[in-house]
Amino acid sequence: MTGTLLSIGHGYSARALARLLIPQGWTVIGTTRSADKAAGPDEVTETLVWPDADLAPAFDRATHLLMSAAPGEDGDPLLAAHRDLVADAAPRLQWAGYLSTTGVYGDHDGGWVDEDTPLTPSTRRGRMRVEAETAWRALAADTGLPLHIFRLAGIYGPGRGPFAKVRAGTARRIIKKGQVFSRIHVEDIAQVLAASIAQPNPGAAYNLCDDDPAPPEDVIGHAAKLLGLPLPPAEDFETAEMTPMARSFYAESKRVRNDRIKDELGVALKYPDYRAGLADLLRLEEAD
Prior knowledge:
It is an enzyme of class 1 (oxidoreductase). Keywords: NAD, Oxidoreductase. The chain is of the alpha/beta class. The chain has a domain of 199 residues: NAD(P)-binding Rossmann-like Domain (Rossmann fold, 3-Layer(aba) Sandwich), CATH 3.40.50.720. Helices cover 36% and strands 18% of the residues. It contains ten helices and 13 strands. A seven-stranded parallel beta sheet has the order 3-2-1-4-5-7-11, with helices on both faces. Strands 6-13 form a two-stranded parallel sheet. It starts with a strand and ends with a helix.
């Protein structure tokens, strides 16, 4: 199967999907805010600088739609600017995906959540994501848009690993009792999206995470071990100097279940835990 994917906010995760689709013969039209940030030829076949570009011709050609751009003060940026355009294209689209976040579930004191857990975000970013999900679901209900929602855990992968900070001696192990995060390698995000495209199930929501939620200090410690470097210093969360953004990530602690991507989509994770993911990242870095 091939088609034309219109990727709005063609960033890190969407580019990983494009690397799977383009060799199969897909056309991938990706938007970016500036031409100098355009992806390479293995990650996009056509680039549109948006919001300046007219998206109507791209929507006329698209068979599939992926929305990655984060919501802003006006809500979802595509719906805010082009709801009618999306609505008109809905009957022609074979698949539409919205990349959300597991932050929509809020804080569960380290407990488990799945796709049926009520959405009770405790951060502003999480609330904005719930509003965006709600807006996309409303549009799908009105137009028949074949919408799929993907709730992503913390993303890592090439260029987004902990090794640079560990090598530079700037890594810290922030300790907050009971804190756990779920995470996902970008290549596993791509394979889940590709599996969903191959097996559409409009209305479905999927958690994208690995099998091993873990305290963040464990990940930093393991990265240091792989590098043969000393364990980065431990700092208590309450007294550590952190930006408001960094501190906000510690406002919620939960373990995210991923059974649905396995049971419904048949996905076998390439990197089922951070140890496998970090080992491969290090192998890639050392091969460069």
